[in-house]
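ok trying again, last paste got cut off:
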Amino acid sequence: MRHCAVFCLLVFLLGCNANSSAETFDEQTIEEARESVESYFRHNYEEVDKITFIKDTSDSLDGLMISGTVNGAEFSASVDSETFMVKSVGETEGFPDVKEECRDTICDYE
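nice, full thing came through this time. structure:
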């Protein structure tokens, strides 16, 4: 009986966690987030030639996680779903370097 209660509690907690991050975004919101990420990279990084978007998901803070590649190097960018500001970026090896003038402060982007 005790194992059943623990199992039920575990299922309940996992179910609540899954529902809290299952927010979906409409195509317009995703497109605006992608445009913001592209602008961010083009204004803050050197030699950005090609940006490809691969996957869009919700992040743990009610924002969007936009993933893709820049010049073939992978990235994931967390974007605020209301302001479309880029909150953080994860990059893989080979990603373009940050522009000198954007190293201490984020350069303006649309």
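cool. The chain has one domain: 25-102. Helices lie at 2-20, 27-44.
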